[in-house]
Structure prediction request, 129 residues.
Amino acid sequence: MIIIPETLVGIIFGMGRDVYLSSGNVGNSDIGYILQLNYGGIIYIILLLRFIFMVYKKLRRSNTQQKWFNYVFIWTVLLCNVKGYFITTNSGMRTLMLLAFIYLFYGDNNTNYLEHVSDEEDINRDGGL
Prediction:
């Protein structure tokens, strides 16, 4: 199940082929990280994981009340990618990213709204400017 590219260039840049359903002398695999290593190499995996961790960091910095989603997001992506292409072509990943962006949008807008309301309340309480 573990098919690693034979050359160093193949490990770094990938072989550009899908070994999920391949036949012949290459073999096949269904492990997501191995599939991505064969397709795009270490550079491809680093770029994908960097994107995921950037979204995770933004979720942690957002001011939403649903802090549990931060942990669900990162653990779902990292664990589900072990068994197949979760990061790149799965509808579950698309749904997870949609929820992440909704939480990011809601958290940012909620914070700006609360700051605006609290400023107006301060002005009204002080009797105006």
Notes: The chain has a mean pLDDT of 79. The two ends are 71 Å apart (CA to CA).
